[in-house]
Amino acid sequence: MTTLRSFVTVADHGGVTRAAAMLNLTQSAVSMQLKRLEDLLGLQLLDRTSRRIALTPSGEQLLGYARRMVQLNDETVGRLTDQVWEGEISFGVPHDIIYPVIPRVLKQFNAAFPRVRVLLSSLYSTRLLDSYGKGEIDLILTTEITVGPGGETLSELPLKWYGAPGGVAGRQRPLRMANCRNCLFRPEAQRKLAAAGIEWESAIDSNSDGAIEATVSADLAVTTMLDGTAPYQLEKVPASAGLPDLGLQKINMYGASAPRNELVRELAEVVRQGFSQIGAQAAVA
After folding, report:
1. Where does 87-285 sit in CATH, by number?
2. pLDDT averaged over the chain?
3. Domain with CATH 3.40.190.290 in the chain
4. Which residues contact 168 (CB under 8 A, 6 or more apart)?
5. Separation of alpha carbons 69 and 49, rounded Å
6. Percent of the chain whose predicted confidence (pLDDT) is above 90
7. What average pLDDT does this structure show over 54-82?
8. What's the pLDDT tens digit per position in 9-31?
9. Is 1-83 in CATH node 2.60.120.40?
């Protein structure tokens, strides 16, 4: 089980160094466990020819089974030893990335730790980073172009233009934009518009996500959102509108590299698994 846990952690974090930090082991100890697992199975599980460790086809096949075995092992030990976890965790997530992952995360974590209360806060990334830095929130997710010190990138998604279904706001000039005042996507979108020579103007001055969505769904403006996170009443602006590509945005997690207690570590792992599934689905798509 120890070798399987090391294997899963290395696969999740892309290398022995980060896996060793997560497992509180030395790099040599993790490397020895990986070699032992390969010797036990008589298979090469890792491709070590590149700078970043990648899984071989055998490793890819083993990973799904290994995850289930480690999870079942931990659940069994917890039940049989009657270990009862109690407490409270504060968890901050930007409004635009709550769906579809976070509800599943909360459900899975509650099933494993029914006596632990998770206090979910929905704030902008800048506010979350500030609150986390002050010690007011245990674990946060952010949407950023880069990742800051102590952060861990969970996924990267394209930033897209969204408007009303069948709307014309994306073709109008000057382009009318609707973003909340503190939205981190707005400066990047404005910079890309300026580079493309497209004039724009603000359609609304608000910090209400509901007000932004209402304005855009009425075809009075367009907005920017991560691909696949928009509500049903909005759709992507077609390429024929001539709006510039907005590139990728990172979904980062802070608080997992040095968790304030064991419960935060457990929640971070569930979050990590949730976003790894989203990344795998995006890669297939």
Report:
1. 3.40.190.290
2. 89
3. 87-285
4. 219
5. 28
6. 62
7. 84
8. 888 887 888 888 878 788 898 89
9. no
